[in-house]
Amino acid sequence: MVQIIHPEVGLNLAIFAMLFALLSTELMAASAILLKYRESERKVFRYLVPIWEVTGTFFVFYVVNLEALIPSALPLIAYSFISYILLFLILYVLRNASIISAEYIWKNRKINRRFLYSIYAIITFVLGAMILVIYTAFISGRGIDYSRMTFSLSAFASFLPDDGFIIGSAILLFGFGSIFYGLDVRRFLPPVVIIAGMAIAGVSFVYLGNLNNPYALAVPVILTVLVPVLWLSGKTRAIVQNKIVFQGFLAVSVFFLAYSQYPDLMGKSLNILGLLNNNAMQTQVFYTTVIGGIILLLLTLMYFDVAFRKGERNRDQQSESAD
Amino acid sequence: MVSVINFDRFLMGYTLGAHILIVTLSISLSVIVSAAEFIGLRRKDVYFESLSRRLAKALVIFFAVGTASGTVLAVELFALWPSFMVFIGKVDILPFYYEVFAFFLETISLVLYVYYWDAFRNRYKHWALSLFVAIGTVMSAVFITMINAFMNTPAGFTLVNGQPTNINPLAAVMAPSGFVEISHVVTTTLAAGSFLLLAYLAFSYLKNHTQDSRIFYRKAMMLTSVVGFIALLLAGITGDSNERMLISLQPLKYAAIELNLHPAVNAPEMLGGIMINGHPEYYITIPGLQSILAFLTLNSKTAVPGLSQFPSSLWPPLFVHLTFDVMVGGGTLVGLFALYLMYLLVRRKDLTGRLSLYGMLVAGVLIEVVYDSGWVTDEVGRQPWIIYNVMTVSQAANTSPSVVPLGIAIIIFYLVLVPFTFYFAAKVLRQERIEEELEKSRGSKWYRSFIPK
To answer: How far apart (Å, rounded) are the C-alpha atoms in residues B15 and B73?
Structure first.
């Protein structure tokens, strides 16, 4: 039976899905930077440089929405993950500092652009892993002691599905990376890597918590398989290499992945509906999200108009004048 | 030994202090970049157009680090003060939420503004983006100050057994001190950033000797000093309103920052002074001035509040009187200097005399001391409360000892980060010579469109 999702929780999952889609593009870029730097200069930076700030903004969006959705859960997160949160913050500032330095670095023998981008890439991997650890821990509940509000990484890591989901997700994104950025790789490498990643992450996810809406998993499975299938054919390749379509696929997949567990967290020991904020605040947050969402949509349209249409036109004119 | 609560308190204050150093520049740069481009386009002045291009690079750097350190603060709020954020989440989370969308406006507009500079046929459309950046930046400050206003003068709920009931989120957003506090924060932040920038421009003027660079920096200093003067003038007016508002809304804070032991009619203004054995020492007084400033009349019969009206356990640390004096005294000095600069501009004299240039260097440093003193006065003046008369700092704090080692790491990290950010921005600006920047502007489609062939 289809379970109707609470509108506020639905919005929160949608924000999380969009955040994860944006973050994924950075994780994919990170592997490209480390493994194929020269090619990344041509294919990755053009996309990454304007987008990394937006990812940061989405992160703040998600955190504030979470604070508004379930304020009473904040002490659990704050106490259980305080060490991770503070470490995350240091790395987050370092990420911003390294990429902005890479953009504007002057000629220097010791620190060059490649070095700074590599630092950015490594930090992005660690940040992505930390987000996945916290997210996975909240689904499985392993490692979190609810009554004492503590988190044990060893207890978390000793549960195989936790590890499998994180490793599988990393492999999956590695496979997606060469498609998303159009990197030069062997034809059958991305499909093989994607299917392997999906199998590991998918099976692990099933065993993570207790699925309340298992049919929802069909959506990420279909979309994940669709990506390499469309990519393999020359006629449909352009569809998945379109950045908006790809990110749309990712966001929809993550949304349904998260929805498959709804409304429970921590292996069914925590029902999110019991933690929701008061009605007065929920109503205001809902209206604000709708109005803010419209503003965001308009800004996104403006972004794509300028970044793609005007940006392409400008590049064409520059290359014509160079000729 | 320092308790975890005091460590939380120090860590929050420290990161906030570091963050606002960066944010003052982000806010002022966003306004000055927009003004410079507009003047450049209107007057077809390549120097102002180049100024906007050049400062936009610094804006991106300060924005990148500023947003990251802002995120650090946002997350620290719930990590270090979980009970406070639970309360805010239930009653007054909306300003944080509004701020996210101002943040989006700022981010997306800035990305387009900087990375697609020459992609616009109509340059006024490009300039409009800078306006969005400035609006987004200023509105972020407005919304964050709304939270601070709520902490000072909470509203929109009824407290029953420590729990908020009858919650009205919109009433909480419109906290009584909101308007006055916002107007003061926005103007002081803009003033602080402008004078800091002015110091950099004066320094650069002194270092550069080519004709183009001297014209460039002279024009930059004219624009920045006008923005700084207007902001400082408004900061003075709003600051005065802010203090008078305390008499009715936070009388204890008022008594502490004025170091009034007892309520008094015709109260003197006390300059300096520390409390020794329950009595103020080392101060001078100006008879009657405090009451005149408080009630804007010469013979008011109303008494100003005194500390003795409140239990001593609720008094904030009384050094806030000194930080208040530093804020007002330093602000007045910078204000007089700004007035001198305006006098020169009105008389059509140059701002490049030695007094003006070295004065700008001193004012740039002094204004940051003034600005930080203002924040210390506001925050320490509310102690022991985190939300005035609702929740104390101790009740809100995360007491997990795990905070300490990583908190120390954050402190060390910021010690490196803030100087690095200023150094890096200055170095990036120095990399491209003014002449090259002007050449770039002269080669742009915009410039060629109005230069006869």
So the answer is: 7
